[in-house]
Amino acid sequence: MDIGGIRMAPAAASVPLAPRVEPTSSGTKAVATELPRSDVVVDVRGQASAKLDARTQDQQDEAQREALLRSFIQTRIIIRPETREIISRSVDTRTGDVIEQFPDATTLKLKDYLKAISDSKERQNPAARQVERTA
After folding, report:
1. Is residue 101 within 8 Å of residue 85, measured between CB atoms?
2. What is the per-residue pLDDT across 34-70, written as a single tens digit (0 to 9) for each?
3. What is the DSSP letter of 75?
4. Are 83 and 111 in contact (CB under 8 A)?
């Protein structure tokens, strides 16, 4: 058969089939191979799988240390009622000390300071805040 310059060839006549699997005395199926009898390949589907942890001992130790530290650190979410800002704090549960806060205290103080300046300017010149609308 000729299709646009591409010649089609018939498929190969003989395709090798998978080897027949015979059940062994233990009830599992052995796959036919050329291995010695002591190195039999066994079908393990349906059996419990082994969990392999490929991390090094140092990585495992580090993971254990982090898990221990996480047990002493609590994350708290706080909403400031006057500004409705969300603050995230990591607190040491043993001592109550704040380990980390976002946004930090300096940023919150700066925002409060700038808001106070803005409010005082509005009180001094309320006309500056008015917007004219024309149709």
Report:
1. no
2. 767 777 666 667 777 666 666 777 888 888 888 888 8
3. E
4. yes
CB 91 within 8 A of CB 100: no
CA distances to 18, 41, 64, 97, 106 from 23, rounded to whole Å, are 15, 12, 45, 66, 74
| Res 9 pLDDT > 60 | yes
Cα–Cα distance measured from residue 135 to residue 133, given in angstroms and rounded to the nearest whole number? 7
Residues ≥6 apart with Cβ < 8 Å to 129: 122
Classify each residue of 7-30 as buried b or exposed e, where b means 16 or more C-beta atoms within 10 Å of its C-beta. Answer: eeeeeeeeeeeeeeeeeeeeeeeb
Tokens 């995230």 belong to residue: 88
Q: Convert 81-125 into a string of H (helix), E (strand) and C (coil).
A: CCCCCEEEEEEECCCCCEEEEECCHHHHHHHHHHHHHHHHHHHHC
In the prediction, which pLDDT does 57 show? 79
Chain mean pLDDT for the chain:
76
